[in-house]
Amino acid sequence: MTDSQRALVTKAVVPAAGLGTRFLPATKATPKEMLPIVDKPAIQYVVEEAVAAGLDDVLMVTGRSKRSIEDHFDRAYELEEALRAKNDTQRLRSVRESSELAQIHYVRQGEPRGLGHAVLCAAGHVGDDPFAVLLGDDIIGDSGALLKRMTEVRAAYGGSVVALMEVEPEQVSLYGCAAIEETGDDDVVVVTDLVEKPPADQAPSRWAIIGRYICDPAVFGVLRETPPGRGGEIQLTDALRELARSKPDDGGPVHGVLFRGQRYDTGNKVDYLRTVVEFACARPDLAAEFLPWLREFVAEQGTPGT
Q1: How many C-beta atoms surround the C-beta of residue 62 within 10 A?
Q2: Could you write out the DSSP letters of every residue in 248-276?
Q3: Quick check: 9 and 144 in contact, CB under 8 A?
Q4: Helix%, strand%, coil% for the chain, nearest 5
Q5: Contact yes or no for 178/167 (Cβ under 8 A)
Q6: pTM over 0.85
Q7: What's the pLDDT score for residue 305?
Q8: How far apart are CA 10 and CA 129, in angstroms?
Q9: 155: which DSSP letter?
Q10: Measured CA distances, 267 to 69, 72, 111, 141, 264 (Å)
């Protein structure tokens, strides 16, 4: 492998420029990434995952009306002073936590031209280093273990790495799906082809890309030459498809890590609500009061349709 292929992954890119139309009117003035999962914005869980995997340099790709994201990861001196005056150390610690997580940088995506374009906006910051991409809609419940495994696979094989999760046949049209070949590792496959949101009868497999990627810097050159695809957007999937067909000197190959753990999709309303309820039930400070109420509430609803 070349020196570039041996380089450690220390940088993470978090695209956060979407309009959040599925959560209107709540996202008219509040970024969807700032919607709370109990009492912490969704995007903080994503940054915490990156940090747990050893990625302490985080670039947020933002857009208009996203200033509150920057404010959240900045110091809030007046609020901190008010909490200090009240001797409220617990809340003071929670307020400071987000500003001390990582080195966080920002760049704006001038217009919403797709995930591939958002990643391309990170080229100036990333340079010639490999980097991770974490989508804010996906929260992975493993404290960074998936991302750590992906960096290990990158170190072993070079190229790029995607996280793959098996989905039901009726769901494949919602994802980029991969054609795969086995390797000597039970949880690692070679990706030979990628198709963005295929019809169920045309999908190469049921293994779908979820919102975690490790990208070789060669992806930037491919993205610059990638024409808009589905929806008039530049798709990261299309660029990775090209890299999957490339030789190592040209940025290939692409491997997949088969993920069988817990993933929370906060990109739609029902799954967002499920995530909030599950996280609340896992909180020792909330569960004792919340779970009995929840059981009673569900029992009172009865069976749907009765």
Answers
A1: 23
A2: GGGT--EEEEE--S-EEETTSHHHHHHHH
A3: no
A4: 45, 20, 35
A5: no
A6: yes
A7: 58
A8: 8
A9: H
A10: 17, 20, 20, 16, 9
CATH superfamily of this structure's domain 3-267: Spore Coat Polysaccharide Biosynthesis Protein SpsA; Chain A (3.90.550.10)
DSSP state of 227: P
- Amino acid, res. 155: A
Per-domain boundaries in the chain? 3-267
Report the C-alpha gap between 8 and 22 in whole angstroms: 37
Angle at 22 between CA 38 and CA 35, to 5 degrees: 20
Tell me the C-alpha distance between 69 and 96, whole Å: 14
* Secondary structure class of 214 (helix, strand, coil): strand
pLDDT in tens, 112-122: 788 999 999 99
**What burial letters (b/e) apply to 74-96, b meaning 16+ CB within 10 Å?**
eeeeeeeeebeeeeeeeebeebe
Instruction: Pick out the chain residues at pLDDT < 50.
Output: none
**pLDDT for 183:** 92
What's the residue count for the chain? 306
CB proximity list for 175: less than 8 A, separation 6 or greater: 167, 197, 208, 209, 210
User: Tokens 């991770």 map to which residue?
Assistant: 132
Burial of 203 (C-beta count, 10 Å sphere; 0-12/13-18/19+): buried
Cβ neighbors of 202 (< 8 A, separation 6 or more) are 195
